[in-house]
Specification:
By secondary structure, this protein is α/β, with parallel strands linked by helices. Helix content is 38%, strand content 18%. The chain folds into 4 domains: 127 residues, Beta Barrel (OB fold (Dihydrolipoamide Acetyltransferase, E2P)); 111 residues, no CATH class; 200 residues, P-loop containing nucleotide triphosphate hydrolases (Rossmann fold, 3-Layer(aba) Sandwich), CATH 3.40.50.300; 182 residues, 3-Layer(aba) Sandwich (Rossmann fold), CATH 3.40.50.300. Helix 15 links the parallel strand 14 and strand 15. Helix 8 crosses helix 9 and helix 11 runs parallel beside helix 12. The longest helix has 30 residues.
Length: 745
């Protein structure tokens, strides 16, 4: 594809990573095809390459001869409706100069008012000509209310002829351009932004589609025929230029299978590569560090911890590197299981790394490991046991002197256990002998980030991945398809009950004041409290949502005046975050007002209450993780989910589900059913993303299972065409993972 709409084509000095012509064409940046300005606008929709745009499906299709039932239109929603113009009138505004066009739409029964404000008089005349009496159109916009009637202001629209073909548009400059979007009477409504309307997305998709004419199918023909799939170019046609209502589903079936095959081939190759690599054999000693640690444990390991520990030990004793995912309910004791595995590595003369996604969590892990080990973690110092090792912390905020000292201990082997953030992945970090990598909260790391440490060594270190977010099997089979799964399904003895209640401030405004009173009561009893909010400050997106900065100020000067309150969020300097968290852990603070940086790993046994503001803004699993920060000591906990949503709404139903159970696996399944899997595994406060853009793992479980079988069958195929296709599928997956990683910051 060589055509451009604007801007100059930039030649790349880098060799192409793609082996097939089709993937080369699909990997082209949109800026090379449509120009820099258009590509920037499409980038807001996360569309960066030709392939991205081709897989961007309209959220719905209209048959131009249909009419929408306006009785189903709800205020506050973004909608697309097909309706006829029942009446229209140009009026002069109060300034005496500017004009507005008022249009009444009808489906034959219901009515919808539409208003267009014209800064230039000729625009009102243009719109009036487009929206003549009796003409049918598609109108896209947000529905509001005015004087008790439904209204849309400045919707985007196209007009349709009697056969359902587009014959006009809201933008007079685009009117001639969009007439070719619809070639069959079916009109696709694409997700859009204020910068780029749905019709423009469709127009660019059609332009790019024209440029792909004659593109060969990258999938080996024998496999495509076996699976009875359309050619890729045909699938794109079915999505962007459907001939009948069945076409989009047929085209999407091909694209979904391509997506999941790319992931499964990548996972299959990883499994093959792991089998070919040699790992150090790790085993504990009767007089070693693990044995000394176990004799000091003040409690009995649960049956679940012992079972999973045995599974891990069996893996560590093999020369094939362990690749195991450890799932555990909130508070099930994953850290102690991981620490025992790390001590086994040290007993065997090797080192272990614990990789955490944030400095707060890395610091917390480092402190808890030091506390659990006691003098066993003090290294080779006077008075320390013979088997003791040193535990060091590596983060990006260390001073140059600190970094130099700690890197020297890592390189010499003096440090047997290293805890760190992404700083551990740096090329300047050299290990004496790395035997085990533990990755906490795996879904916050890209696939390749997880592999950096394991790929850097002649002897491949074993790998243990931890997640406190229970993962449904369907997701585990996709995102974690290269890992064996172990599950901790018991809570240690002494775990306290946490009573969870939904506080509806809209219907019961007085309940929030009672929540502040309850906080004072908990503090008076000698306990501590978390208050969590979705935003850092009022400048963040999300008008009307609680922010930790504003909450901290208002509460410390009002309802919680006199209590020792602290503030914690991701923008604070690392030293300030560490000091605040340390003060809360030590009991020097009564109340911590925080964002979700305390979501995982934070262990404060004296914390007995949590208030989550605007709880409807968080996912089910995220709420469950937050709630897991309380009730970790000898006292029961109270969790209040504060929301302004109406009782009976979908959002209120999610909160009620969280309040009704502490079964994280049940909540994870519900979360997956309600939200995209990328959100379930997401890393940001607003919800993350997955490299699965088209699949819904709940709906496409059979497709996923089939793709895994196909991947296992073809990953060792020696046919050059199959090998080339597999290579490109893996490259595609890794590039998507890298793109998601970069977007996460």
């Amino acid at each position: 594809m060589t055509a451009q709409r604007n801007g100059k084509k930039q030649a790349s000095a880098q060799p192409s990573p793609w082996r097939t012509p089709a993937f080369q064409a699909l990997a082209q940046p949109l800026g090379m095809v449509l120009g820099a300005q258009t590509a920037k606008a499409l980038g807001s929709l996360r569309l960066h390459t030709v392939g991205d745009l081709m897989t961007f499906q309209p959220r719905r299709y209209f048959l131009g001869t249909q009419t929408t039932n306006l009785a189903e239109v709800v205020p506050g929603e973004d909608v697309a409706v097909v309706a006829r113009v029942a009446r229209q009138e140009i009026r002069t505004n109060r300034d005496g100069h500017s004009k507005r066009l008022e249009v009444l739409l009808t489906d034959g029964n219901g009515r919808l008012n539409v208003t267009f404000f014209a800064r230039r008089a000729h625009l009102a005349d243009y719109w009036a000509r487009q929206l003549s009496m009796g003409v049918k159109g598609i109108f896209v916009g947000k529905v509001g209310e005015f004087n008790g009637q439904l209204q849309m202001t400045h919707p985007n629209f196209v007009m349709l002829d009697g056969d359902g073909n587009i014959v006009g548009a809201a933008d007079e400059k685009k009117a001639s351009m969009v007439t070719h979007v619809n070639r069959s009477g079916l009109v696709g409504i694409y997700p859009a932004t204020s910068r780029i309307p749905t019709w423009s997305v469709g127009e660019y998709a059609n332009f790019v589609l024209d440029g792909l004419a004659g593109m060969p199918d990258p999938m080996p023909e024998a496999l495509r025929l076996e699976l009875e799939l359309p050619e890729l170019s045909t699938a794109y046609q079915q999505i962007h230029r459907p001939v009948d209502a069945r076409d989009p589903d047929l085209g999407m079936e091909r694209l979904k299978l391509d997506e999941v095959l790319a992931l499964q081939v990548t996972m299959a190759r990883r499994r093959r590569e792991a089998i070919t690599r040699v790992a150090p054999v790790l085993a504990s000693r009767a007089d070693g560090l693990l044995a000394a640690f176990d004799t000091r444990l003040p409690y009995q390991l649960t049956d679940s911890q012992q079972r999973v520990g045995a599974e891990i030990n069996a893996d560590l004793r093999c020369e094939t590197p362990m690749q195991r995912l450890l799932q555990g309910e909130v508070g099930s004791g994953k850290t102690i299981v991981a620490l025992r595995a790390m001590l086994t590595a040290v007993d065997s003369g090797h080192q272990a790394v614990l990789l955490a996604p944030t400095e707060v969590l890395a610091t917390q892990h480092h402190s808890s490991i030091i506390e659990m080990l006691g003098d066993l973690g003090q290294g080779r110092v006077l008075g320390a046991p013979e088997s003791a090792t040193e535990v060091v912390l590596l983060t990006g905020s260390m001073t140059a002197t600190q970094r130099r000292e700690r890197l020297a201990k890592v390189a010499s082997g003096e440090a047997g256990i290293i805890v760190g953030t992404h700083a551990v992945l740096g090329s300047t970090v050299h290990f004496a002998s790395l035997g085990l990598v533990v990755v906490d909260e795996q879904h916050r790391f890209g696939v390749e980030q997880r592999a950096i440490l394991t790929d850097r060594h002649t002897l491949a270190p074993h790998q243990l991945v931890l997640t406190a977010t229970p993962i449904p099997r369907s997701i585990a089979m996709t995102v974690f398809g290269d890992l064996e799964v172990s599950i901790l399904d018991q809570l240690p003895a002494g775990r306290q009950e946490v009573q969870t209640s939904v506080v509806h401030t809209g219907t019961h405004p007085g309940w929030l004041e009672r929540a502040w009173q309850r906080i004072r009561e908990e503090v008076a009893a000698g306990h501590q409290v978390f208050i969590v909010a979705p935003r850092i400050d009022a400048d963040d997106d999300g008008a009307g949502l609680a922010s930790v900065v504003e909450l901290h100020t208002r509460l410390s000067q009002g309802p919680l005046r006199g209590l020792r309150t602290g503030l914690l969020h991701g923008r604070l300097p690392v030293e300030e975050k560490d000091a605040t968290m340390a003060a809360f852990v030590a009991g020097y603070l009564d109340v911590l007002v925080s964002t979700t940086v305390i979501e995982v790993g934070v262990d404060v046994p004296n914390a007995t209450m949590m208030v989550i503001m605007d709880a409807d803004r968080f996912g089910i699993s995220q709420l469950h993780q937050l709630r897991g920060r309380i009730g970790r000591g000898q006292y029961p906990g109270v969790c209040l989910l504060v929301t302004a949503v109406e009782p009976g709404s979908v959002a209120a139903g999610r909160l009620s589900a969280v309040a009704a159970t502490r079964d994280g696996f049940a909540l994870a399944e519900l979360d997956l059913a309600q939200r995209r899997e990328g959100d379930v595994l997401g890393s940001s406060q607003a919800g993350g993303r997955s490299t699965l853009r088209l699949l819904r793992v709940t709906d496409d479980a059979n497709l996923i299972a089939m793709a895994r079988q196909i991947a296992e069958r073809i990953v060792d195929d020696t046919d050059p065409d199959v090998r080339a296709w597999c290579d490109d599928m893996v490259t595609r997956t890794l590039r998507m993972a890298d793109a998601e990683w970069m977007e996460r910051g």
